[in-house]
From TrEMBL:
GO terms for molecular function: hydrolase activity. It holds the Pfam family CBAH. Belongs to the peptidase C59 family. Residues 16-341 form the Choloylglycine hydrolase/NAAA C-terminal domain. The lineage of its organism: Bacteria, Bacillati, Bacillota, Clostridia, Eubacteriales. InterPro entries: CBAH/NAAA_C, Ntn_hydrolases_N, Peptidase_C59. This is Penicillin acylase. Keywords: Hydrolase. It comes from Solibaculum mannosilyticum. The keyword Hydrolase applies. Gene3D superfamilies: Penicillin V Acylase, Chain A (3.60.60.10). It comes from the Bacteria.
């Protein structure tokens, strides 16, 4: 069990891209790609009801629970994660009943956590942050206030690992915030452009946008040089210079301009569909990102490949409280509704459905007609 849980913590340090967006009818969406070379056994779509008791520091498995960090969740939440730690659920991302949405992404070489808790604050281990914020906060304002006043993000290992992560959250107001634990303190970026990838910091990525000010959605006109006239012969040259690799800086730039120029859906269903296409533009195709360091492999790890790839994509809606997802193997959009789940006072889990799902039209006589 310990080896499996240790691998779960390592898996939390995957790559990934996150994005907030809205629809024409003012629905608010937040989603992410989860990019890694494996997903440890036990990771599922997980529902945790309100009234759940949990701890923000220590685990019952390691026998080091900090009793003073016991809490009771005020809000129900659903997201991707695991329930293998009896004392505290772990979510990679999720949404709660108030429409607060968000998750964690890899922040390699930059994340820094404290050795001592600030006076008057609760110790919070990074792996528990997503669930704790969703369990106790209704808005991004409350998340920001909690980070500033109520908790200290601690450099306390969980099964020997302190994940190097940062966070993004959004809500029904449409505001998207980024939380980054740096060496000179925790930074909270308010009213961001709604894009987050991995290292370096959000402030670096934001300034890097200035290198791409010429990117636009309109083709450039005919080129004239020394009396020679070159007519356009292909479309898309307005985006010349837009980086096409899968590095964190390049993915940030692509998502920023995709969000700027992408057509918003008229409603939630169309919004989720359009947003999935944006995520596909920064998704890791299997075979292009070879892993140089596999990390710690355990008996619980299944289907390990030598490449990072987009294992799943999730999108949630603050108004409907629906959580949508696709997997690399299954591009059919699946969905759970938090409104339905809140009828249960018990934890519930759903498989990610990582098997191909093809609809063979010729097997259904009612799907076609003769002409």
């Amino acid at each position: 069990m310990n080896n499996s849980l240790k691998q779960q913590l390592f898996d939390m340090q995957a790559g990934c891209s996150a994005l907030s967006w809205s629809t024409q009818d003012q629905k608010h969406l937040w989603g992410r790609n989860f990019d890694f070379n494996r997903l440890a056994e036990g990771s599922k779509i997980s529902y945790i009801p309100s009234g759940t008791e949990y701890y923000t520091c220590g685990t019952s498995v390691e026998h080091n629970l900090a009793e003073e960090t016991r809490h009771t969740s005020a809000y129900a939440a659903v997201g991707t994660g695991f329930l293998l730690v009896p004392s505290t659920p772990v979510l990679y991302e999720g949404i709660n009943e108030k429409g607060l949405m968000g998750g964690q992404l890899y922040y390699r070489n930059f994340s820094h956590f404290e050795d001592k808790a600030r006076p008057g604050t609760t110790k919070l281990q990074p792996p528990f942050a997503v669930f704790h914020f969703l369990a106790q906060c209704a808005t991004v304002d409350e998340v920001a206030a909690m980070v500033e006043k109520d908790v200290t993000l601690m450099a306390i290992p969980m099964f020997g690992t302190v994940p190097t992560i940062h966070w993004s959250f959004s809500d029904r107001s449409g505001e998207s915030i980024v939380i980054e634990p740096d060496k000179d303190g925790v930074k909270i970026y308010r009213n961001t452009i709604g894009v987050m990838t991995n290292s370096p910091s959000y402030s670096w990525h934001r300034l890097n946008l200035l290198n791409y000010v010429g990117v636009r959605d309109l083709d450039y006109d005919t080129l004239e040089l020394e009396g020679d006239r070159l007519e356009q012969c292909f479309s898309g040259n307005g985006a010349l210079g837009l980086p096409g690799d899968w590095s964190s800086p390049s993915r940030f730039i692509r998502l920023a301009f995709l969000k700027k120029f992408g057509v918003k859906g008229k409603d939630e269903q169309q919004g989720v569909t359009n947003m999935l296409h944006l995520f596909q533009s920064v998704a890791f195709p299997l075979g292009m990102i070879r892993v140089s360091e596999q990390g710690h492999i355990t008996e619980y790890d299944k289907e390990i490949v030598p490449y990072d790839y987009t294992i799943y994509t999730s999108i949630m809606c603050a108004e409907s409280l629906r959580f949508y997802f696709t997997s690399y193997e299954n591009q059919r959009v699946q969905c759970v509704d938090l409104n339905h789940l809140m009828a249960s006072s018990e934890k519930v889990q759903f498989d990610l459905g990582r098997r191909a799902d093809f609809h063979l039209l010729t097997s259904d006589p009612g799907s076609h007609r003769s002409l």
